[in-house]
Design a protein that fits this description.
436 residues, alpha+beta, Cytochrome p450, five-stranded mixed sheet, three-stranded mixed sheet, 17 helices, 11% strand, globular
């Protein structure tokens, strides 16, 4: 019997996606997830589909995910990021030695002992949001939950970066970040045309970034102490590669990665709790306010939300050399799509995968033990370096809001929009009531 690995064949053509519709599909990310789901269902956790002359390989099997992202990131590399026009040469889009240097510097700021410097800043942003929600509850004034979560997450990362609470001017101008991120899937393929389409928003972001850099140069520390921006400026004084442009790119990268994903996760969580109030009740009954038991239960709410709507829902890679993946030959030059969104919804790994069940993360044995089965922030060398920061800020806010407020949604989004993140596809207007 021939056991020699075989090259992955292309998937059968998908009637809904004829060759002449490829450009339209590229502008409609929702159709991408449908194509990927059909491909996985027909062909399994390592499969291929054809959009052009060469197949693209889809990876959702945990062992294969670990192979691509964890064991062999040198064989499966990240190419130019779709958000490059926004983040420039920041760590999100950097490659090679530049990425390694930038990653080392920033990792020391957001992991391990480095996280301790942000505890008070996170707590301050959470209290500010909790006070604002108390005002909404007292007056009955409506709010948009998604906008509130974006405001909180932006305030938190701004404090970490600059040492200052977010001011009204910066908040107003940095709304352009969300505008550009939301526009990315529909921008023209040509880079110059795409940049022109969002030029005004990019100019506003650049102006705020430059103002923050100038302020950090004049005053080494804000009221919360020095921020990451000060660290970047100090490095720039000794290493000429850290130009003002690169410092701007790192600042904007951290703003995008540090607030868009957190805001989206929190918004989904409140929408899920609206449909599953029993999950909120169980979390609040798990222990007294401030207890380890309460915190563990709240963290489980976040973890289950991230299972359904991972921060990194799709991770494109490019094979730079021939390889064997799950018994299949992968030729150099092949595009590979690792899809945590589908891995997290695999019924072979997660029974009843569409159901919101935080108990998966509190009951021993219910979460799959296989590495690569749960990767909401990616995996391996290029996993999100702000994962600890994101988990801490979401938990800190929820510990304040969940016991006191229940958003009563006037209406809820009907679906999801797939861009850099998976976000609700519409507004989330609500009023605040007492906990049910």
């Amino acid at each position: 019997m021939d056991t020699e690995p075989q090259r992955i064949p292309a998937a059968p053509p998908v009637p809904e996606l004829a060759a002449e519709a490829v450009e339209q599909w590229r502008a409609e990310e929702a159709e991408l997830v449908e194509l990927l789901a059909r491909t996985r269902q027909r062909l399994g956790g390592v499969s291929a589909f054809r959009l052009g002359p060469a197949p693209t390989v889809l990876v959702t099997d945990p062992h294969a995910v670990q192979h691509v992202l964890g064991r062999h990131p040198d064989r499966y590399v990240k190419r130019s990021h779709r958000a490059r026009m926004l983040v420039g040469d920041g760590v999100l889009s950097a490659t090679g030695d530049a990425w390694k240097r930038q990653r080392r510097l920033l990792q020391s700021q957001f992991t391990g002992p480095g996280m301790r410097r942000y505890e008070q800043r996170i707590a301050g942003a959470a209290r500010r949001t909790a006070d604002r929600w108390s005002g909404y509850a007292r007056t009955g004034r409506p709010l948009d939950v998604g906008e509130e979560m974006r405001r909180f997450a932006l305030d938190t990362i701004w404090r970490a970066l600059t040492g200052h609470p977010l001011d009204d001017h910066a908040e107003r101008e940095l709304a352009s970040v969300a505008t550009v991120v939301a526009a990315l899937p529909t921008l023209p393929a040509d880079g110059a045309d795409a940049r022109d389409a969002v030029a005004a928003d990019l100019a506003r972001i650049d102006a705020v970034a430059q103002q923050a850099i100038d302020t950090a140069r004049r005053a080494p520390a804000g009221p919360d102490g020095p921020g990451v921006l000060r660290v970047l400026l100090d490095v720039g004084a000794e290493h000429p590669e850290y130009t003002d442009r690169l410092i701007r790119d790192e600042l904007v990268t951290l703003l995008v990665a540090g607030h868009e994903t957190t805001a989206t996760t929190l918004t989904w969580l409140f929408l899920l709790l609206d449909r599953h109030p029993e999950a909120r009740a169980r979390a609040l009954e798990a222990g007294a306010e401030g207890s380890p038991e309460r915190r563990e239960a709240v963290q489980a709410l976040v973890s289950e939300t991230l299972r359904l709507y991972p921060s990194a829902w799709l991770l494109p890679r490019h094979a730079v050399e021939d390889d064997t993946l799950a018994g299949h030959r992968i030729a150099a030059g092949t595009d590979v799509l690792v899809c945590p969104y589908l891995t997290h919804r695999d019924p072979g790994l997660w029974p009843d995968p569409e159901h919101f069940d935080p108990g998966r993360f509190t009951t021993p044995g219910r979460r799959p033990a296989r590495p690569g089965a749960y990767l909401p922030f990616g995996l391996g060398a290029r996993a999100c370096l702000g994962a600890q920061f994101a988990l801490r800020e979401t938990t800190a806010l929820l510990e304040l809001l969940l016991p006191r407020h229940t958003p009563r949604f006037r209406h809820t989004p009907t679906g999801a929009a797939y861009s850099i993140t998976v976000r609700p596809d519409g507004p989330t207007p609500a009023t605040l009531g007492a906990v049910r």
